[in-house]
Amino acid sequence: MWPDDVADRYRKLGYWTGQTIGTLLRPGDDRIAVVDGDREVSYGRLHDRALSLAAGFAGLGITKGDRVVVQLPNLAEYFEVIFALFRLGALPVFALPAHRSAEIGYFCAHTEAVAFVTTDVHEGFDHRTLAAVAADARVIVAGDPGEHTALSDLHGDPAGLPPGPAPGDLAFLQLSGGSTGLPKLIPRTHDDYLYSARASAEICELTADSVYLAALPVAHNFTMSSPGILGVLHAGGRIVLARRPDPATVLPLIATERVTITAVVPPLALLWLDAVAGTTPRLDLSSLRVLQVGGAKLGSTVAARVQPVLGCQVQQVFGMAEGLVNYTRLGDPEEVVLNTQGRPISPDDEILVVDDEDRPVPPGEVGHLLTRGPYTIRGYWRAEEHNREAFTPDGFYRTGDLVRVRPDGYLVVEGRAKDQINRGGEKIAAEEVENHLLTHPGVHDAAVVAVPDEYLGERTHVFVVPRAGAEPLTLPRLRGYLRERGLAAYKIPDRLTVVGAFPITGVGKTSRRELRAALRAIQEG
Ligand code: OOB
């Protein structure tokens, strides 16, 4: 957490307003907050439902500080669940719908979760089967609960609810994209997170007339607060939920719900653009004012197609769940919007661009991005050892991104120094996948690297050294193996090369980082 003097300064500067996220709900307000298919939930009803669910959770013994793993797709229930937990001061741990037993099992165990809230069946997968790895967590299901607790049965009388959390308290744990063997958890407070959502809503010019389409998973930081669902609730606008982000689902929703702003990752932008360009007669997408694109680098050619094809502005968003978010601004010249990843939210976001020895590079040159500020964490949750590497002694977060800062203060992302694959915005930690591969009886050694991909930006390529005498390793077999281990589908390697040995790097050392770099170099020819 922030040193006291720094926290005082953020309060004095008005960034931290001393409110909790729950204050975004508006009792008695009949305007629609959330649209989920034919269900419409008003601000007032959401407030009431969140309180009655908080009472239900409290009845199960869930209390302040408890962790609750939440894995819900874009459903109206998501809102009552998170606001109920916020009210209690219990901490949601935000899993993604794509996570499977490997991830959910780890989140439940690592956070010692008291409950796991999920759905019945989504995209053909029965999430109730994950109960097997939920350890001691009570399993609560939105939809058909099977043998578990039905979310809908939990609502109770909120009269005797205990006092809620303080604004400086933790609000939830968000997942890090990660570059380590096990995913790290990001502790965000009410004060810091509300600031980023509120400031983002201003930057994106949200008003009570804004209609935000949540196409990406609601629990991701982009959808949650950049400006996302919390930014919209702050502005008093309306959130429309898309169950999945494919053009056939989202384009009709944009037309019928008169959506004004939405957020996508670059491959989705491309998919939507191609779908709209190929559609006759065209749907009426005239309500759309802003298409936000982030999570991975957007090519300027794709960016340039947004205005002519969709008839709206493109906004580049370069953010991270650890904090710092950069936006191009709505009135920015085309050159800026097409070629940069934006500038920070806050005048008090501190940006350092340094070389390998943490020395500042000359202005305008590429280097490692370090950052500190009023909504960037000072450490991962319960990860003291890793924090010593991931943060500088004076509290800067090492983003792992390589950037340059233009004279106008806008950032351009030039690459990455972390051992991560950014597969169309979905982050994969090389080491995490390698560790799973190393448990395979036929695998002696494994290295996972990113390879460039026209559509996704990057895909995963795994190099494997087989164990002598083992059955031949094939991509389908390894993929099947990883799926059986319960790894999320997006982490399962796209390509495989079996090699006799790994190249010895220049210094004769085989650090995994150098090995990955060497393999990537071979791969790229
Ligand atoms: C967002 O958050 P995360 O935590 O899933 O991933 C953060 C990482 C960044 O460190 C960077 O490596 C990459 O994703 N990234 C981008 C980018 N936006 C994110 N790289 C290049 N260009 C961009 N525009 O991805 C996230 C969080 C909040 C808002 C938007 C994205």
Number of separate domains = 3
Q: CATH homologous superfamily of the largest domain - what is it?
A: ANL, N-terminal domain
Give a short account of the largest sheet. 9 strands, mixed
CATH topology of the largest domain, by name, is Rossmann fold
Distance between the termini: 45 Å
Helix content: 25-40%
Write down how many β-strands occur, each being a DSSP E stretch of 2 or more residues.
Answer: 27
Estimated radius of gyration: 23 Å
Structural class: alpha/beta
Bound molecules: 5'-O-[(R)-(benzoyloxy)(hydroxy)phosphoryl]adenosine
Strand order, main sheet: write it out. 2-1-13-12-14-15-16-17-18
Number of helices: 15
What is the averaged pLDDT score? Answer: 96
Strand content: 25-35%
Description of the molecule:
The chain has 525 residues and is of the alpha/beta class. It has 3 domains: 42-165, Rossmann fold (3-Layer(aba) Sandwich); 195-416, ANL, N-terminal domain (Rossmann fold), CATH 3.40.50; 424-524, 2-Layer Sandwich (GMP Synthetase, Chain A, domain 3). 29% of the residues lie in helices and 26% in strands. The chain has 15 helices and 27 strands. The chain has a 9-stranded mixed beta sheet, with helices on both faces. A 5-stranded parallel beta sheet has the order 4-3-5-8-9, with helices on both faces. Helix 9 (266-277) crosses helix 10. The radius of gyration is 23 Å and the shape is globular. The model has no long low-confidence stretch (mean pLDDT 96). The structure holds 5'-O-[(R)-(benzoyloxy)(hydroxy)phosphoryl]adenosine (OOB). 5'-O-[(R)-(benzoyloxy)(hydroxy)phosphoryl]adenosine (OOB) is lined by residues 177, 221-222, 226, 294-297, 316-321, 325, 341, 399, 401, 413, 416, 422, 427.
